[in-house]
Amino acid sequence: MAAKAQPAAPPAGGNGNAGVHLPLGNGNNEHGGWRVDPPGQVDNEHSNRPDAPPGQIGKFGEDLTGTGDDNTIVGGLGNDTLDGQGGNDHLTGGRGADKFVIGPLDVQPGEGENPDTIGNIDTITDFNAADGDKIAFGFVGDANYDELTLDPPADPPADYDPFAAAKAAAEAKMGADQNAGFDYVSVQVGDDVIVFADLDGDGTADSAVVLAGATLDSVGAGDFV
Ligand SMILES: [Ca+2]
Ligand SMILES: [Ca+2]
Ligand SMILES: [Ca+2]
Fold it and tell me: How many CA within 13 A on the CB side of residue 171?
């Protein structure tokens, strides 16, 4: 009797019952490929994806789209497009030139929604213009950019809201004249930068995103699409 064909050996990088890594690119997962880890997987070293948390299912250089809920979305080594959709999302592009799609502010929150605050809008955890990262607010046309540092009051009142203060400071630069003023204004607030966008030119911010742990040096006029 002829011997039955044996099943193929697990791909290199798999470690017993801890799941497998599936390099579909150049073998080092530097170009393309995706990864499936079981819960509890802690060994990112063999996947060559130190920027991806255990358990993530993701592709490289692909569109990573969230839901209306608060999502955490983590890109890989490639050039990813991260779109959290609604909710207050935490977006991490990882390496590569990533595009972060940012939606509108909840200017008048509905029932069950929270007012916009620094912790209550989308956050980009690793914005890096030097990598070619871009923020996509959906603005079309020529855009003017400015930036400033918010100086909190020496003795802030109990209800001091740094987000509202930053938004007001940004809107003071946006101006009500559609043909003047700035369309994008970045505001340094403590250790973070909040980028505000006036998409319709009426002098009010329509969208905003927090760049966590960033400085004004890390974002500029050429970083928007
Ligand atoms: Ca979301
Ligand atoms: Ca990436
Ligand atoms: Ca506006």
Answer: 15
Distance (Å) from CA 216 to ligand 3 centroid? 22
Per-residue pLDDT of the chain (225 residues; tens, 9 = 90+): 444 444 444 444 333 333 334 333 333 333 333 343 434 444 444 444 444 444 444 455 778 888 888 888 888 888 999 998 888 899 999 889 999 999 888 766 666 666 777 778 999 999 999 999 999 998 766 789 999 999 989 999 999 999 999 999 999 999 866 667 899 999 999 999 999 999 888 899 999 999 999 999 999 999 999
Cβ atoms of 35 and 22 within 8 Å: the answer is: yes
Can you tell me which residue has the tokens 């930068």?
193
Q: How far apart are CA 166 and CA 73, in angstroms?
A: 26
- Going from the Cα of 92 to the center of ligand 1, the distance in angstroms, rounded, reads 13
How much distance in Å is there from the Cα of 83 to the middle of ligand 1? 8
**Three-state secondary structure call for residue 217:** helix
- 207 DSSP β-pair partners: 104, 197
Q: What is d(CA 41, CA 149) in angstroms, rounded to the nearest whole number?
A: 42
Distances (CA, A) of 119 to 3, 76, 124, 178, 205: 62, 24, 12, 30, 17
* Cα of 204 from ligand 3 centre, angstroms: 4
**Three-class secondary structure of residue 135 per DSSP:** strand
Q: Are 195 and 219 in contact (CB under 8 A)?
A: yes
